[in-house]
Amino acid sequence: FSLQGSLQVGRYLAETNPLNRSARALGPYAEAGRALLAHSESLALSPWPGASLQGENRFRGFYYTTQNPGGEHERQVDWTTRLAFRQTLGGVSLEAGYLRSVQEGESPFRFEALPSRRTHQANLGLGFQEKPLALSLKGGRDLEGGKYLPLEAEGRLQDQGYSLLLYHKRGLEGEGPLETRLEGSLSPYPLALRASLRYDHPKALFDPLLLQGSYALPAGSLNLAHRQGLNGEGALDTSLSLAFREGQDAYTLQARRDWPKGLSQLFAQAILGPRSLSLQANLDPQGLAYQVGLRFGTAPEPLWDLSLTGRYQEGFRGTNLRLALSQALPEVGFRLSANLHLPEVEDRETYLKDLTFSGGAELWGPTPPDENGENALPGLAFSGSLTYTRKPSSPEGYALALRNFGPTLTFLGRENTRLHLAALLTQNLPGEPLKPRFVLVLDRCCWALRVTLDAGKGSFGLAFLYGGQAAGLLLSEEGVKLGGAP
């Protein structure tokens, strides 16, 4: 036997419950006091051999300082009581159960409002089990509604390598038969077969017949499934999947056929170490849509991703070659994506539809002056994002969007003093005159000074920061990167 209890008292300001009329009158938010009383008791006994008795009682009571229109303080209760008894005599078992579950009342707060629910029922079950046979019969009465629960009968024949299940559900209040289900399986390793069928008596309709088969490969699996309509629909869908792995290489094949729609789908992928090749195709009565992908590259080298997409319908249509290239190094970090239009039935030209670049790179580092203060060479880096879009309807035929895009010069002086000068563009071209933003940052060992001149906004800014990482913070606030990956 165990007993647990708790009491929480507090005051809350929260969104009101829209389903509570008195709470809605308080506005969208309300403040109220709340006490939460919770306790639970559980009992587990074995009074004699073969018998077991289990009981559980859980209670949560929410009590609020708000009042309903009748002047009573609002409350809500969640109370569940369960009791189960089981007696086993050899292969015969008898079960009896009792359940009462109530959720009622109202809360002024939306976050803890409980839906109203009331369940009150008693159950009785009889079972017999003697391998490989198992039989069960279950019924009960709804004490809340004053009617009998449906009677459920189940027979199962199960042993190593096979299984057969027959289930029937029948209403005792004049409904008659409700449901009949039949399932069977054979599993002689490495093969496994399964079939299931269900009949809905009130609707006088069969659920689709499900047939499944699988084969366990040494390093993978092969699965086949089919659904067949038995109410005049015929074949519904068929699916096939194959997965195989050998060392670092992996192969996947998935195929599906939707018979009513005449749609066939195929996906195949081969992972060969750092390389990946994939094919996706959808075939319908109008045409074939396809996508071929290729990925290769290993870090820290560039990573390539190529994808060819389109549709064949009385000729090639919507044909595009997509390219994605990325790299992440301290000195070079970027992502480039481009979409190239290839010749098709309605457009025979080849052109670049769009391109996006984001990142940064240090082309070369600064060279400090010699002992005579000469021969210093500034370092050069660039960063930002650039987006190109082809627009045949515009006079220029394209649109260019720049965001914090531009070069940065770095001068290295004595005592590790650095001077960064960046010219950045954040605007849409063409159609607008160039209005750069100049950023000048003086970096000393333990402090940094930033001067900003924005031609687009017509503004001037000055910032000073003390600390070892001051220059990097002042540069990043203006969108300036001196290299690749952070």
UniProtKB/TrEMBL annotation:
Q: Which organism is it from?
A: Thermus islandicus
Q: What is this protein called?
A: LPS-assembly protein LptD
